[in-house]
Amino acid sequence: MLNLLHISDLHFGKPFLPEVGEALLGKIEKLSPELLVVSGDLTQRAKAQEFRAARAYLDLMPSIPQVVVPGNHDIPLYRIFERLFQPYELYRRYISEQRDTVLHQNKAVIVGLDSTNPYFAITNGRIHRKQLAFCAKAFTEAPAEAVRIVVAHHHFAPAPDYKGGEVMPKAKRALDLFTQLKVDLILAGHLHRAYVGNSLDVYPGEDREHGIIIAQCGTSTSRRGVAREQEKNSFNWIEILADSIRIFHYMYFKDYRNFYPVAKYEFARPSQRSYLAERFLNES
């Protein structure tokens, strides 16, 4: 149905590892995904030269659709005037004019959300109500059989090791809506190590029949890996089938100068869809 490759936290700048970046390009070419997802932090300090390098790198990817969202490192941190008055100028110039996007691809609907907040929640981000309404509109207009995917930079669920586990403010509000919309899969980054799980593991909410698969990606090309992925790099290869979703976790091995799969996860897709988000649509 759809094969996609999920990378994150490239961190162009001093942390970027050119040899790992080269290996990632080769692996992407070999796997031949139909869609590329980049879940934020393309740069380290949101500098023009870093954005230019990130743009050039994305342009080396195969000519396939891309879903790219900004991360907190893609807005200026120490350049206070820019952060307050033009936080996304360079992102718009080099990456994309749009920060909240909808893509229809092979019976899938992928919604990319900008979870950054330059003013009050710089580290942990924020999803606003108007963005939830944006999601509701995109998914309620989708065919019943479509797979529904949300992409953001910040994490909606804590990491299993609890290191840096504070999630986005109002994350439960977003998860409740995503559950109502029967979202199948959430893709994110930010934590610099990968994990795969289910929203019901951390927050059962009101609907205990529908859990959302959560696939976090580590840092794909930088030296900023933490916890179990300290000084490691990873990405996710995802196969979406009519009745299941398979996620393969790839890691980079220095001895072989290449990425190889180290874990596989498979989840059944729910067979029924219902749409209960009218209140968010009315508030948009």
From TrEMBL:
<keyword id="KW-0479">Metal-binding</keyword>
<dbReference type="InterPro" id="IPR029052">
    <property type="entry name" value="Metallo-depent_PP-like"/>
</dbReference>
<dbReference type="Pfam" id="PF00149">
    <property type="entry name" value="Metallophos"/>
</dbReference>
<dbReference type="GO" id="GO:0016787">
    <property type="term" value="F:hydrolase activity"/>
</dbReference>
<feature type="domain" description="Calcineurin-like phosphoesterase">
    <location>
        <begin position="3"/>
        <end position="193"/>
    </location>
</feature>
<dbReference type="InterPro" id="IPR004843">
    <property type="entry name" value="Calcineurin-like_PHP"/>
</dbReference>
<dbReference type="GO" id="GO:0046872">
    <property type="term" value="F:metal ion binding"/>
</dbReference>
<keyword id="KW-0378">Hydrolase</keyword>
<dbReference type="InterPro" id="IPR050884">
    <property type="entry name" value="CNP_phosphodiesterase-III"/>
</dbReference>
<protein>
    <submittedName>
        <fullName>Metallophosphoesterase</fullName>
    </submittedName>
</protein>
<keyword id="KW-0408">Iron</keyword>
<comment type="similarity">
    <text>Belongs to the cyclic nucleotide phosphodiesterase class-III family.</text>
</comment>
